[in-house]
Design brief:
single chain, alpha/beta, Aspartate Aminotransferase, domain 1, Aspartate Aminotransferase, domain 2, 2 domains, 7-stranded mixed sheet, 4-stranded mixed sheet
Length: 418
């Protein structure tokens, strides 16, 4: 721990920020070095949908390890990548049928941006190179991804003049479970019409915004975005890195609006948090046009692209998800979160409570003291990591009602005292 505090840099933390050592993880429980067990309400940043140490995922990885841990994907291929590609094409909506396998969610977004820009270059529209995104959005930490994150809460100020300047529409005002107001799309419609000649794509998190604000918006907004993209000749990128694989109650959040994007980004739960892997899918038309462009190919190729261990884990994770009644599990989590988090609504510190699928959000009036609240949650036997004004829970789908009640009870108890 002394070495960690002196030498290891943790995400979004200063050197020496407090951390807790984990020695084991099984099911929904993390075991700390001091022997305490914590019920994990974070799914390791929303990825461990099957819980930890799942034997099916471990078997897939160890079996693949006996054959090969890695081989370059340039000029070579292997069965795990092919099988994963087959499953992703089968699962995702038509006409998405071309799959680029990469390392992480941020890279999947970078690839999507490159696809959009190269597509318009190949069609002799080089001016179409900007993106239109939503305030309150989060798409990753690399430079292209940062440029389409919320310009206020993101990192634009720190990297002004370095991060590309994109366009931003207001966060959709209509709640997921509220009435649709046509005025909610008005400013977005004005922006896309005004800038269509320079826009390569619209990028957004469908239905549920994640780390930029945890906001759930009306499905009609997504339908309007799809129609406006078609009307103005702009590609539509759906970032489903956080929402994919059942988190919102549908396999993909776009299904709430019954729309399909031109480019789709996946990650996080793709391997059930057993390995790092992401994917960017697109259409045959976009892939063909890019192939006819000046470069003759998509200009991206990570060293560990389509790693066989990660692909084998992803195949096993998808099969495990599809073999179980995941919709019933997520539905049960949603009903329990709705019922039990309602107790928070009357607390003085709480501004709003909202639930969608296996996502529960309690928003406070004032910014949260992260170290203090984290310590109190640990004392209550749960692992939650609030940020800003948000205390949220995204548990593994395998969590029991009793363990979920421990999470919701801890949230209500801790927030009652602030």
């Amino acid at each position: 721990m002394a070495f960690d505090q002196t030498h290891l840099w943790h995400p979004y933390a200063a050197m020496g920020a407090p951390v807790r050592p984990v020695v084991e993880a099984h099911g929904v429980r993390l075991t700390l070095a001091d022997g305490r067990q914590l019920i994990d309400g974070m799914s390791s940043w929303w990825a461990a949908i099957h819980g930890y140490n799942h034997p099916v995922l471990h078997h897939a990885i160890t079996e693949q390890l006996g054959r090969m841990a890695h081989v370059m994907f340039g000029g070579l291929t292997h069965a795990p990548a092919i099988e994963l590609g087959r499953r992703l094409v089968d699962l995702t909506p038509d006409p998405l049928d071309k799959v680029f396998l990469c390392d992480s969610g941020s890279v999947a977004v970078e690839v999507a941006i490159k696809m959009a820009i190269q597509y318009w270059q190949a069609r002799a529209y080089p001016a179409k190179r900007r993106l239109l995104a939503l305030r309150g959005g989060y798409h990753g930490d690399t430079f292209g991804a940062m440029s389409v994150c919320d310009p206020v809460t993101g990192m634009h100020r720190l990297f002004a003049g370095v991060v590309p300047e994109q366009l931003f529409a207001p966060r959709p005002a209509c709640r997921f479970d509220g009435p649709w107001e046509p005025s909610a799309i008005a400013e977005f419609a004005d922006l896309i019409a005004l800038h269509k000649d320079e826009l390569a794509a619209v990028i957004l998190e469908p239905i549920a915004q994640g780390a930029g604000g945890m906001w759930f918006y009306h499905p009609q907004y997504l339908r309007e975005v799809r129609a406006l993209c078609d009307a103005h000749g702009v590609l539509f990128i759906a970032d489903e890195i956080a929402t994919g694989f059942g988190r919102t109650g549908r396999m993909f959040a776009c299904e709430h609006a019954e729309v399909a994007p031109d480019i789709l980004c996946l990650g996080k739960a793709l391997t059930g948090a057993s390995m790092t892997l992401a994917a960017t899918l697109t259409t045959a038309e976009i892939a063909t046009v890019i192939g006819r462009g000046e470069a003759g190919c998509l200009m991206h190729g990570p060293t560990f692209m389509a790693n066989p261990l990660a692909c084998a884990a992803a195949v096993a994770s998808i099969d495990l998800l599809m073999a179980g009644d995941w919709q019933a599990r997520v539905g049960g989590i949603a009903r329990q979160l709705t019922r039990e988090l309602e107790a928070c609504r009357g607390l003085a510190a709480v501004a709003d409570v909202r639930v969608l699928g296996a996502i529960g959000i309690v928003e406070t009036h004032m910014a949260i003291d992260l170290p203090a609240l984290t310590a109190r949650f640990i004392d209550a036997g749960v692992w939650l990591r609030p940020f800003g004004r948000l205390v949220y829970v995204m548990p593994p789908y395998v969590i029991s009602p009793e363990d979920l009640s421990m999470l919701t009870g801890a949230i209500a108890c801790v927030l009652a005292d602030i």
